[in-house]
Each structure stands twice: as structure tokens, then as C-alpha cells.
Amino acid sequence: MTAARTKTQQEQWMVENQVFQLFDLFADLPRNAKSALVELQRDKHLEYLTKGLKRLDPSFCVLDANRPWLCYWILHSISLLGDYVEHEVEDNVIDFLSRCQDPNGGYGGGPGQLPHLATTYAAVNALITVGGERSLSSINREKVYMFLKRMKQPSGAFRMHDAGEIDVRACYTAISVASVLNILDDELIQNVGDYILSCQTYEGGISGEPGAEAHGGYTFCGFATMILINEVNRLDLAGLLDWVAFRQGREGGFQGRTNKLVDSCYSFWQGGAFALLQRLHAILDEQLANYGPQTGVASDISGGEESSDGTQVDDKTCHFKLGGTNASCPVNLNSIGYNFVKQPGEMEALYHRWALQQYILLCAQDMEGGLKDKPGKRRDFYHTCYSLSGLSLSQHSWSQDEDTPPLPNAVMGPYANLLERTHPLFNVVLDQYYEAHEFFDTP
Ligand SMILES: CC(C)=CCC/C(C)=C/CC/C(C)=C/COP(=O)(O)OP(=O)(O)O
Ligand SMILES: [Zn+2]
Questions:
Q1: Contacts with 128 (C-beta within 8 Å, 6 or more apart), sequence order
Q2: The one catalytic residue among 265, 318, 363, 385
Q3: ipTM attached to this prediction
Q4: What is the sign, positive or negative, of the torsion defined by CA atoms of 401, 173, 268, 417?
Q5: What range does the record give for the signal peptide (predicted)?
């Protein structure tokens, strides 16, 4: 074991101690006091988030390259909490993000900064979250497409920015943006699957680049990408399930990689992988029976065009084959994200949902607003966003379909803790996703 991992072990004992002390205290409390401790501090979180957004307002003059991310983390968290910001603030966000848009496509971290795939993903998701004609039409889709094409590498993977790093994050942000904007095509997906496959490690999770260590953030990115390009059956899903199942710690939260500490942001990155697996039961069952990626298993989500009323037309004959799309029966790539959430979930999530919710509410919540990585850390917008996103996925993972609200026993604490539902592939709230899907549905 390396010195770094030995140190991690000591930290692990400290975190476990703190968490288990909290659990012990919690266990001894009377019922009503318990309920108060796992109550989502909705108003406090909204206050913290709204203040954070206003601090960036009106000129968004903070000097860093993270501002589209801050907009997304804050706006998405507010949206998960079922609220929205004042029109004036929305207008400022739209104006600011428009100034981050590069004349040659894509969004930089601030006005005049180099366009970057991560900030492009954040800006697009933030604008979808704001919603409405002004916000959605501010995205120059033709130019975004040009930017994505420029970032595409001969290997099939993507670069984060001109001369930037090539990794699985870049593949996900490029494909997610293209899919949600309805500009995904065969050129963009060419050989992306080969690159992602080369990053699935012996542990079963996915690493950032070939030869690196499997990690929750990259596992989510690689897995979601494979679904969006309709090649998910090429992954060893049984191996991936095995890896992610062992990432839930005794504290209830997830760790990002083997022998590391639990951290609330993995509630989304690892919890998200479970939400995706839940809708791939047919492929998973087949792989579990044979243990290994299947060559001839058809992906249910690929087939079927969407009809004009938005429902999926069942077309079980339209299947893709290993290594690419079936030329005789082309798949509508841009419908995959839509069909994915429309199909009913037929399998329960395969992790301890109650334990995860307990970790988020009891250990990661700052009672003064905002959420943090773990006890002893400070709240921040990144952890607030991904803890709430993971909490939402966990609460809704019991529902068969989107029209059936979760049963009370799916929601830890009072039922008022229930958050809005998020799209497990793009991580934008479903109502806003549907609005964007309709808006960008025009060719
Ligand atoms: C859409 C998008 C841009 C996604 C990003 C995905 C993501 C969270 C990647 C993780 C990157 C990484 C290796 C963190 C390790 O940090 P660490 O060593 O501090 O954390 P650890 O101890 O938990 O592994
Ligand atoms: Zn974290």
C-alpha cells in the first residue's frame, strides 16, 4: 500500500468515527427529533443559493474560469428544490453566458476566454434550466456543432479545448451537449465507443483515460456517453455493476474510487450510474447470465422513432449491432435521451437508497444552508448541486414511471423532502429538459 493510501486509511477512520458518532446520537433521539434532523433545509438552501447567484450579479465580474459552472450548479440546485430565480437574475445569466459564447462556437469560463467543453456543457445546462425562448435561442447551435467538430480527434475521442487534454469527460460533455441540442450525428459519435471501451478497467469502472484508475466521475461520464451514442451493450455492465456496488461505504455515502473516502458528490456520479443501470435491465440480465459484454444484445432504448405526440413508437426490429449503427435501419440518435426517461423503470436501484439519503441529509447537510462533502468540511455549490442531484435520483428511483410520484417510504424524512426529478443522462430537471427537447426538435 502506498503512503498516500495509508494516510487515507487514517482519514477513513476519522470520517467513520465522526459519521458513526452522528448515527449513534441520531439513533438515541426520540422520533420527532430524528425527523427534524433529516429534514431537508429547503429554505436555508434556497437562501444560500440565491445569495450565491446574486453575488455574481450584475456584472459577474469574479475573476475565474468557473462562472458558467457556478451558474449551472446554483440554478440546477434551485430547480431541484422546486424553485426559480427572479426574471432580472435570469436575464443577467442569459446575458452573461452570451458574452462567454465564443464567436467560433462553444462557451469559455468567462467573456473572452478560450471555449472549453466543460464550460460549454455547464452553460448549455444552465440555459436549459433557465428555459424560455430568450434563453434557449441564445445558444448558437450551428457554432456549437463547429466547436464540437474541432474538438473531435482522429481516435474518436474529444479534447477539452484547443490543444487541451483528451479524456472521457470531454467525450461526455461533447456528446451530452450535442444530444440535448439535437445536433448529434454519425460524425460526432464515430469511434467514441472504442475510446470509452479502452477506459473500462479490470475493476469494472471507467477511468479518465486509457491505463488510469477507475473513478466515479469518469464512470458516470463514460457510461452515459455509451448510452447516448447507442453502444452501451459494448460495455461490461456486469463488471461495472460489481464495481459501483462496492463503492457504497458503511457511512451510506459513496466513495469515488477504491480505498478512498466517501464524499457526497458521488451521490450523483455513482448514484447516477445506478439510475442508468436500472433502465438497462435486459442487457444487464443477459450479461449477468453469461458474465461479459454481449455482442448481439439489442439495446431497447435505441430502436423506435418518437411519434409526433412524443410517445415512443415500438420498433423492436430496429437494433444496432456491435461496432456501429445498423445502416439498413438508422437510429434516431437525438431521441435516445428522450426515450431513455420515457421507458418505465422495471428494476429497483441496486444500492442501499435509504443509507445514501441518510448520509446526505444527516452528514452532508449544513443546517444553515448548502451541502458539503462530509462532516468537518465547508459547504460549497458543487457539493450542493451533486448531493441534491443524487438525493433526487435516489428518491425517484422507486417510481415505475415519471407520472407516478414516489411512495412516502421512498423519501427519507418528511415527504416534503421530495425534490424535483432530474434527467439521469444530462442532469437537468425533467420539466426543463422536456421544454428544451421540444424547442430544439426543429431540424
Ligand atoms: C461533467 C463533468 C465535467 C464531470 C466530471 C466528473 C468528475 C467528478 C471527475 C472526477 C475527477 C477526479 C479524478 C477527481 C479525483 O479527485 P480526488 O482525488 O480529490 O477525489 P477522490 O479522493 O474522491 O478520488
Ligand atoms: Zn466531492
A1: 135, 136, 180, 428, 432, 433, 435, 436
A2: 265
A3: 0.98
A4: negative
A5: none
